[in-house]
Design a protein that fits this description.
Strand content: under 5%
Oligomer: single chain
Number of helices: 4
């Protein structure tokens, strides 16, 4: 008895990553949403973490208020 080498079975359990649908460049809306998420995360950092990355509290708050 030989080992079954049908590749269609393995792709059912191990799909491509990232999925084909996500290989396209992200849309403008998704990029905007991601930037807004990052700005919100920046606003939540404490002063010690901001100083670690070289950003002042004023600059972080100004960036967090941006909408474009």
């Amino acid at each position: 008895m030989g080992v079954q080498t049908d590749t269609s079975l393995s792709t059912a359990f191990f799909p491509r990553f990232p999925p084909e649908a996500m290989r396209r460049a992200p849309s403008r809306a998704l990029r905007w949403f991601d930037r807004q998420r990052q700005r919100a995360a920046l606003a939540e950092l404490d002063d010690r973490l901001l100083s670690d990355i070289g950003v002042s509290r004023a600059a972080a708050e100004a960036e967090a208020r941006r909408w474009n």
